[in-house]
Amino acid sequence: AQTVTQSQPEMSVQEAETVTLSCTYDTSESDYYLFWYKQPPSRQMILVIRQEAYKQQNATENRFSVNFQKAAKSFSLKISDSQLGDAAMYFCAYRSPYGNKLVFGAGTILRVKS
Amino acid sequence: DVKVTQSSRYLVKRTGEKVFLECVQDMDHENMFWYRQDPGLGLRLIYFSYDVKMKEKGDIPEGYSVSREKKERFSLILESASTNQTSMYLCASSLWTDQSFGNTIYFGEGSWLTVV
Question: Is the pLDDT of residue B11 over 90?
Answer without folding.
Answer: yes
